[in-house]
Design a protein that fits this description.
With 299 residues, this protein is mainly β. It folds into four domains: 2-48, no CATH class; 57-126, Immunoglobulin-like, CATH 2.60.40.1080; 131-205, Sandwich (Immunoglobulin-like); 217-297, Immunoglobulin-like (Sandwich). It has strands at 2-3, 24-30, 33-34, 37-38, 42-48, 61-63, 69-71, 80-83, 89-91, 96-99, 103-113, 116-127, 132-135, 139-140, 146-151, 157-162, 174-177, 183-190, 196-205, 217-218, 236-244, 250-255, 264-265, 268-269, 273-283, 288-297. A five-stranded mixed β-sheet has the order 20-26-25-21-22, with no helix packed on it. Strands 6-12-11-8 form a four-stranded mixed β-sheet, with no helix packed on it. Strands 14-19-18-16 form a four-stranded mixed β-sheet, with no helix packed on it.
Length: 299
């Protein structure tokens, strides 16, 4: 017979069904009757266990191209980790999540103790701005310009352009540049989640038949675009330059100049108009070219 107490009470021939709604220990008592004599009751203790896992802790956002891993943890040891979408992110036995591609996956932590089990989960998002950079032309002659355009399929902001010296405002999505030599330009974009991505493009400067290019106008207005009058070419070893105003006064002279004339004389901005230049150009092969012409200063 089955009893709910060690003494007293009324026994039943039906074995009790332990309640599992709450954890804890419950005692049941059973006796055996032979030839009308009932034995002493034996105690049977039924233990209902409860794991009660705490929530998973750790970052729920991974930036694909910067911090590609994040560490998750749980206060209960001995469990197993799984990812619902391993094409987005994987997780190892220690809870280290590695980003694979943009998207969201559910990370689950499961603990089994005997016949008891509990599981908790956490959604982890892998984010990537996927910045693109295009150029209006990948090649140009010295003195020409190229328009660079940054774009993405989702919202983003530009946080930098490289090399920094080539750009006045490094937050614009569209830039016009005047490459002097073959250069790789890069843009860094950031999405609302704070994740960064970088895209790059190489612009090749190809010298003309004479291996030099001398523009006929420049705009020294301080906007960082075409602010200097100079000779362009990827085979130039040295340049000597003289500038004369309309009255024949020499207002600029430089040897082996790099940036060229900035439109000033004795620190003062010169007025718009036509100026005469005389340049002596030494190429890398030691060939010397002498050029004379006019340059239009525009403001």
């Amino acid at each position: 017979l089955w009893y709910s107490s060690a003494t007293g009470g009324t026994g039943t021939t039906s074995a009790p069904v332990p309640a599992t709604g709450a954890s804890g220990n419950t005692s049941y008592y059973v006796s055996q009757t032979v030839d009308g004599c009932e034995s002493v009751r034996a105690e049977i203790v039924v233990q209902v266990g409860e794991i009660n896992l705490q929530p998973i802790t750790g970052n729920t956002l991974i930036c694909l191209n910067s911090t590609t891993v994040t560490q998750l943890s749980n206060t209960t040891a001995g469990g197993s980790w799984t990812s619902s979408n391993t094409s987005v992110a994987t997780v190892n036995n220690n809870g280290l999540v590695t980003a694979i591609a943009a998207g969201t996956t559910t990370i689950r932590y499961r603990v089994e103790q005997g016949s008891c089990a509990d599981e908790v989960e956490l959604d982890v998002t892998v984010s990537n701005p996927e910045i693109n950079l295009t150029a209006s032309s990948l090649t140009l002659n010295p003195g020409g310009n190229v328009t660079l355009t940054a774009s993405a399929s989702t919202a983003f902001t530009v946080v930098n352009w490289l090399p920094e010296s080539a750009f006045t405002d490094r937050t614009l999505t569209v830039q016009t540049i005047f490459p002097v030599s073959t250069t790789t330009y890069s843009v860094v974009g950031q999405n609302p989640a704070g994740c960064l991505d970088t895209a790059s493009v190489q612009i090749e400067v190809i010298a003309g038949d004479e291996e030099i290019y001398i523009p006929n106008a420049f705009t020294p207005n301080g906007d960082g675009i075409n602010d200097f009058f100079r000779v362009y070419g990827n085979q130039i070893r040295e340049t000597e330059m003289l500038i004369f105003n309309q009255w024949g006064e020499k207002i600029y002279e430089a040897k082996n100049t790099i940036n060229g004339w900035n439109g000033r004389h004795k620190g003062k901005l010169q007025p718009s108009g036509v100026y005469i230049y005389v340049v002596r150009i030494t190429l890398n092969n030691r060939e010397v070219l002498n050029r004379k012409g006019s340059i239009n200063l525009l403001r």
